[in-house]
Design a protein that fits this description.
Order of helices and strands: HHHEEEEEEEEEEEEEH
Largest sheet: 6 strands, parallel
Helix content: 25-40%
Number of strands: 13
Shape: elongated
Length: 279
Amino acid sequence: MTDDAPELRASDADRERVAEVLRDALAEGRLDMAEFEERLDATYSARTYGDLAPITRDLPVGGAGAAPRVSMTKEPERDGGWAGRITGAEGSSTWAVAVMSGFQRKGRWTVPRRFNCFAFWGGGEIDLRDADFAAGEVVINCVAIMGGMNVVVPPGVEVVVRGIGFMGGFDHSEEGVLGDPGAPRVIVTGFAFWGGVGVERKVTRAERQRLKEERRQEKLERRQERERLERGSGRQELDASRHDSHDSHDRHGFDGLHDLHGSSRERELEPERERRRDT
């Protein structure tokens, strides 16, 4: 898989591909439930390709008998439109099971036309925010028995909820929101007994980071504008203070000169006053 670069960091998509191999092996009887859960825990806690390699080394892929390999070729960036995300390809994962455990479908994966999932005393997360879609309409069929599941959709996707709950329920809060032109339609159906299936709408991590950066930039610009105004106000106050000081200096200088001139005049007139008193 990655013997040539085991130190490279694994992505969510890499971990999901390995998890899918484990699920196939469980369905074929190659792994028992204890082995499956142990390896699945190791898969989702793996940090590098080197951590992932031993997990499926003794398992065949698709009956070909070859050891599964995680692709090190990064997929091209999307063009940003919905047309590029409705691929018509086969789903990369078509089912999921959690029995007293949990499962996740997230990151870059292809949602099939129908995705079936089951949780018993467990839970699961089906995250469609970064996913591609096999068709313009996909069905997420959830069966939750004393467990729960959560379906996360991106903005712009139309959601229809048709599930039935018995001492449980399906979340209908995201219904009625019109989808973007060309966006896929997601139908959430199934059955919940003493459990629940939630549906929530969230932006992608990249979009959340972009919005966060925009808010940070706006705050920075407001702070710079406030500092500029404060500097301008301080400069005006300093100029006014200097002007007042100059006026005061001139006034005091004039008054001092006037007092000096008056004193000299008084000394000149003093002998004349003395002479008049003597006469």
